[in-house]
């Protein structure tokens, strides 16, 4: 579970923990919340990813479920965006997911089963003004997950995407009240999501009941995308 020390990732980690699963969460120096195994890992660094998996697997056994949740925003309009701003977001959100999926796949192949769940965003499907870097990284996860689903499906490994809408976390706390109101006006359910509501979709995708679901994009967006 990447980025499991706070926000949506922590809610997902707690949901797995409550179901009796052994959970390891990554952090970048904050430590892990009480009761969870924390492994230090910046997903932009392949060596840190490898060391974090080694540590988590030494403690908990081979990974069965990967949740690639770590993500950042660094918004700006296209003409004002610089290369570092674009590359930084794609490196953390998309290439970071590639790095952890690749390492997880080697363990899952040995188990001949596994579940990979990638946390994308409604913005990856609809686009967002000022978020070309973020939207590209999140859209990329869909093609990535579907490719993994095709490559590894015959080994009983599934790869799916969850696409949340606006969720109340540190990431969205930074937005102005005006921007929050504009977003809320687009939500048929007329409220923002709580992190637990994203966790529900993720734990379902990891469960036995979702064994025949792969390559899917599950929106948890209050109806903003109406299934897209
Ligand atoms: P937060 O900003 O609250 O948390 C982000 C998490 O990602 C933190 O745990 C952070 O770790 C971790 N992280 C960021 N960069 C890295 C990195 N390079 N290596 C390892 N960990 C990293 O975000 P949310 O909980 O809101 O978002 C979680 C995911 O959900 C993200 O992928 C986001 O894009 C996505 N999402 C969020 C939505 C929302 O409305 N909040 C909507 C749609 C999607 P640290 O504490 O060390 O910074």
From TrEMBL:
The keyword Transmembrane helix does not apply. InterPro entries: KR_dom, NAD(P)-bd_dom_sf, Sc_DH/Rdtase_CS, SDR_fam. Pfam families: adh_short_C2. It is an enzyme of class 1 (oxidoreductase). Belongs to the short-chain dehydrogenases/reductases (SDR) family. Signal peptide: none annotated. This is 3-oxoacyl-[acyl-carrier protein] reductase. Its EC number is 1.1.1.100. Residues 2-170 form the Ketoreductase domain. It comes from Halosaccharopolyspora lacisalsi. It comes from the Bacteria. Keywords: Oxidoreductase. GO terms for molecular function: 3-oxoacyl-[acyl-carrier-protein] reductase (NADPH) activity.
């Amino acid at each position: 579970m990447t980025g499991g020390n706070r926000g949506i990732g922590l809610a997902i980690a707690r949901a797995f923990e409550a179901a009796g699963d052994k959970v390891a969460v990554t952090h970048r120096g904050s430590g892990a919340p009480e009761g969870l195994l924390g492994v230090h890992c910046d997903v932009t660094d392949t060596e840190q990813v490898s060391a974090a998996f080694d540590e988590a697997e030494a403690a908990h056994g081979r990974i069965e479920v990967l949740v690639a949740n770590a993500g950042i925003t660094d918004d700006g309009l296209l003409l004002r965006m610089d290369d570092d701003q674009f590359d930084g977001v794609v490196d953390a959100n998309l290439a970071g997911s590639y790095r952890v999926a690749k390492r997880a796949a080697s363990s899952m192949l040995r188990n001949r089963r596994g579940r990979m769940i990638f946390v994308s965003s409604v913005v990856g499907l609809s686009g967002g003004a000022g978020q070309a870097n973020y939207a590209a990284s999140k859209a990329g996860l869909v093609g990535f997950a579907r490719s993994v689903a095709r490559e590894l499906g015959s080994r009983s490994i599934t790869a799916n995407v969850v696409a949340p809408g606006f969720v109340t976390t540190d990431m969205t706390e930074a937005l102005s009240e005006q921007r929050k109101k504009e977003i809320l006006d687009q939500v048929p359910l007329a409220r923002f999501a709580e992190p637990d509501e994203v966790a529900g979709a993720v734990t379902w995708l990891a469960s036995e009941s979702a064994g025949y679901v792969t390559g899917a994009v599950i929106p948890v967006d209050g109806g903003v995308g109406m299934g897209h």
